[in-house]
Amino acid sequence: MGGMAGTLTPQREATEEQHGDARAHPDRPWITIVWDDPINLMSYVTHVFMTVFGYPKPKAEKLMLDVHHRGRAVVSSGTQERMELDVHTLHGYGLWATLEQQT
Prior knowledge:
Blueprint: H1 2-21, E1 30-35, H2 42-53, H3 57-70, E2 72-78, H4 80-92, E3 96-101
Antiparallel strand pairs: 1-2, 1-3
Helix pairs in contact: 2-3
């Protein structure tokens, strides 16, 4: 057991460092990012943006083209909880989406 106690300390320190780097700043909004993937058709991604966010077709197409040409697009912003819901919803449609706090 003496050896295990020595191995737990670095793990705790690493966990604390990870949480320290990922601290949220309450005054900055969160964003949902959709990433390019080789699976979904551009027309389908446009459809998902229109369905999930209610975007008009020109805006949905612009975001889809950003995903296609730039590799990613910010599709929504707001509270962390709302962006978590957006990411979860997009995952349900088969899109690769993540959230992060806006810099």
